[in-house]
Amino acid sequence: MEEANKEILDNIEQIYKDKEAEINGRIYKITKVNHEKRKKIFAYMMKVQNQISSGDLSFIDSVEFKRVEDIICGLVLFDGFLLSKSQNHWDEYPEDYLKFVTSMLLVFSYPFMRGGTLN
């Protein structure tokens, strides 16, 4: 379990450093994020981390997550355009959505986890 967590954190660290994530062969580029937006994403991630760990992603249909998703999609580019400006990106690439959501919650929270202080 410890080795699996280290591998996940290493992958998240690499995405954070590279400012891009490859999901199903498509590149999602991360733009600059300020502390206030990062803090909102991190606070939400902390609320749902046990759900994510257990594979329960039912939170994706909540009003609270919609606010966080809007923040994330306003910080990520696909083909040079913010996801927040694309009306049908997830209709075209639904297979990317769950990996994108779970990865980006962790990527934007990474600066708070760098010191290994979170379990």
Structural account:
The protein has 119 residues and is of the alpha+beta class. The protein has one domain. 61% of the residues lie in helices and 12% in strands. It contains five helices and four strands; from the N terminus they run H-E-E-H-H-E-E-H-H. It has helices spanning 2-18, 35-54, 63-73, 89-92, 94-113; strands at residues 20-23, 26-30, 76-78, 81-82. Strands 1-2-3-4 form a four-stranded antiparallel β-sheet. Helix 1 (2-18) packs across helix 5 (94-113). The mean pLDDT is 91.
What key attributes describe this structure?
globular, 5 helices, 4-stranded antiparallel β-sheet, alpha+beta, 119 residues
- How many runs of DSSP E, i.e. beta strands? 4
- Mean of the pLDDT scores? 91
Largest sheet properties: 4 strands, antiparallel
Number of helices: 5
**Shape assignment:** globular
Domains counted in the coordinates: how many? 1
Return Rg in Å. Answer: 14 Å
Q: Could you list the spans in which at least 5 consecutive residues all have pLDDT below 50? A: none
What string gives the helices and strands in order?
Answer: HEEHHEEHH
- Portion in strands: 5-15%
Given helix and strand content, the structural type is alpha+beta
Helix coverage percent: 55-70%
Order of adjacent strands in the largest pleated sheet:
1-2-3-4
Oligomer: single chain
